[in-house]
Every structure is written in C-alpha cells, then in structure tokens.
Amino acid sequence: MTPHNRKHRVLPMALYAGFALVGAAPGLAGTQPRPFVLTAYGAEPGGRDLLAGRCRTALRRLRARGSAASDQGAFNTNSCVAFEMTQHLRAAQSACGAAVLAAKSARLDAAPWSGTSRISANRDLAAAYADRAVLGWLGGNRRDARADLVKARALAPEAEFVRRNVAALKSHPLQAQVHGS
C-alpha cells in the first residue's frame, strides 16, 4: 500500500491522563486539561492492536516485523505510538524521529502534479510531527513540542489530530500557546 492511500486513526492519550495534572498552577486546579492524541495506521503492522488498546501486543508484532515492513513510514509511526503508549520514551524518540524522516522523504517523492497525493503526504508528515510533539511534551521538552505542532499545523491545519493536540497543549497548565498559522 502506498503511503498516500492510508488512513490516519486518532488514539486518545488516556494512559497519560495523570500527566495533565503535574505542575498545575494554583487557581487552575479545577480546570480539566484536554487530552493529547496520537495517530496510527490501523491497516498497517501493529495498527489494529494499537486501536484496540493492546499496545504491548502491537509492540511485539512490530518487533517481529522489523525492517521487513513494506511501508517504513507506517511502521515507524506505529512504533512511535506503541513506544509512547507503553512509556518507552527513549525508543519512542528514535521511532518518532524515523517516522518524521520517512514522511519527509515520501513527501518529496509525492507527485507534484497530483494535489491529492501532495495533500495526503502533508497529512502523513503532519501526523509524524504531531506524534513527536506529544512525545516532546511527555519528556518535558515543551519547546520542541510546540515547534513540531507548528509544523504539523502548517502542513495540515484542518486535520483533527492537529487541532486536538494544539488545543491540548493550550489547555495544559504552565504551557505556552502554539504560535503560527
């Protein structure tokens, strides 16, 4: 399957709900921050397990598939999500970085005369940036998280996962707002 025929699926960051309350400023205690979301490819290796909340099973399937995966972008994205959801943040950092690089490469290969192909490539890259932004926030690297969300929003401003993560970042205490258009 080419990367431009895939569908993104949004996963709520339910496992990390506790992170939302860490460092809450006085006066904001009654405010409920919005959850971050991750995106995954349901039809790709590990995707169905991720969507069903079986993150450890997804990781086992992804590890078994390894470099033999036919679509490295989807493989890296799903690995990024699985590692984030199982709190393997160092491994997630590597997988998320690889997902961004694969999506950038696929975007460069997208046919410039095909608007649909370019829009899909932009969404794939936005998904990779958005997933990496969540990882940045979880790891306390808020500057990089904001920068990745700005990039995601520039590529796919209408994407649900971008809108939801921008809203989540804005709603979390002590977080600066995402700037850019």
State the gist of this model.
This protein is mostly helical and 181 residues long. The protein has helices spanning 47-51, 55-65, 72-85, 89-109, 115-138, 142-155, 160-171; strands spanning 8-12, 37-41.
Strands, helices and their partners?
Layout: E1 8-12, E2 37-41, H1 47-51, H2 55-65, H3 72-85, H4 89-109, H5 115-138, H6 142-155, H7 160-171
Antiparallel strand pairs: 1-2
Helix pairs in contact: 2-3, 3-4, 3-5, 4-5, 5-6, 5-7, 6-7
Characterization of the model:
The protein is mainly α. Helix content is 56%, strand content 6%. The chain is built from seven helices and two strands, in the order ββααααααα. It has helices spanning 47-51, 55-65, 72-85, 89-109, 115-138, 142-155, 160-171, and strands spanning 8-12, 37-41. It has a two-stranded antiparallel sheet. The protein is globular and about 45 Å long. The model is unreliable at 1-5, 12-29 and 174-181 (pLDDT under 50).
Index terms:
181 residues; mainly alpha; two-stranded antiparallel ribbon; 7 helices; globular; disordered N terminus
The chain-level mean pLDDT equals: 78
Order of helices and strands: EEHHHHHHH
Given the helix and strand composition, which structural class is it? Answer: mainly alpha
Stretches where pLDDT is under 50 for at least 5 consecutive residues are: 1-5, 12-29, 174-181
User: How many separate helices?
Assistant: 7
Indicate the proportion of strand residues. 5-15%
Amount of helix = 55-70%
Can you list the strand order of the major beta sheet? 1-2
State Rg.
16 Å
Largest sheet: 2 strands, antiparallel
- Strand tally is 2
Gross geometry: globular
Compute the separation of the termini in Å: 32 Å
